[in-house]
Amino acid sequence: MQVVSASAIRSVLALVWLVCASTVPAAASLYDPAGSETVAAPHVVGTSRETMLYGRRVRSYLVHLPPCYDGQHKLPLVIMLHGGAADARATEKITGLSVKADSAGFIVVYPNGLGRFGRFIRTWNAGDCCGYARRHHIDDISFLKELIASMKQHYSVDSSKVYIAGFSNGAMLAYQAADSLVDQVAAIAVVSGSMTGREGKLARPLPVIIFHGTADRNVPYGGGGGKLAKWGYAVNRKPVSYAVGFWVDLNGCLKVPETVERGDVVIQKYTGGKDGASVVLYTMKGAGHIWPGGGRTWIGGDQPVNEVPATDLIWDFFSSYSRTDAAN
């Protein structure tokens, strides 16, 4: 009897996945940054899956087009980054962002991170976190840059109104990507995310809205590695106060915020920033690792806080900002 080694089995499985993943559906687009081959996707209202070949890997993402999309009028674009071990499809459901897009009239793209064989326990490389993407030094920031370029090439996107939102590991990537993408992004939204403390100063102000629960055990409000650190998922360790201070200083906002308390929710708005850039923090007392106003992030996840409709608040914040230097 012939004995097949575990390494051989893994190689065969990897080859099978690559062959399957490299077969792009008819409704998808294959975007080659070098321009050698580009297949445009049909403009289908609703959500469709697309892929691009980037960094010798097939990267997948969902594109949601609202009913008002006609390919002629340019619409805002929101890039929504999922949390660690999640994916684009689950995040579309949890956040309800596509429903909001339909009523408000913007495009959403939900990119997928990478995991084992490309698809299992997907994560982003966001500094100190997380998992497969960090261990394999995946350049997710460059991937996002190419994704924006692809969306502008294939869809009618308003270049002055491109935004990034993220949850958990995706929120960390939103923080990290801001430096490289500040010339393309008008604002970012961060839900249950954190910073490394090694971020550089951006070339210009960038409006930021932040949501975080004080009882978050995965990405602690007060900083630290979080409960998943023992399994190799140590998160970016800086507390929420560090992130707020970083962006208030960068944007040149007033140091004393306008503060409103509504039950267990504290809202702090730092205004007076350069070019009108502000920093807004929603602190939810006793809340865990959640997308406020959305669904549970997994079946055993923390209970969301319905008093804070994060998706609506994020779009209200985003729609207040656009880049005046963008060329459409």
Structure explained in plain terms:
This protein has helices at 6-21, 88-95, 97-104, 131-135, 140-154, 169-181, 240-251, 310-318, and strands spanning 30-31, 38-39, 46-54, 57-65, 75-81, 107-111, 114-116, 120-123, 157-167, 187-191, 208-213, 258-262, 265-270, 279-284. The protein has a 10-stranded mixed β-sheet, sandwiched between helices. A two-stranded antiparallel sheet has the order 1-2. The protein is α/β, with parallel strands linked by helices and 328 residues long. It is globular, with a radius of gyration of 20 Å. It has a single domain (33-250, 289-318), classed as Rossmann fold, CATH 3.40.50.1820. The chain is 26% helix and 24% strand. Strand 1 (30-31) and strand 2 (38-39) form a beta hairpin. The longest helix has 16 residues, at 6-21.
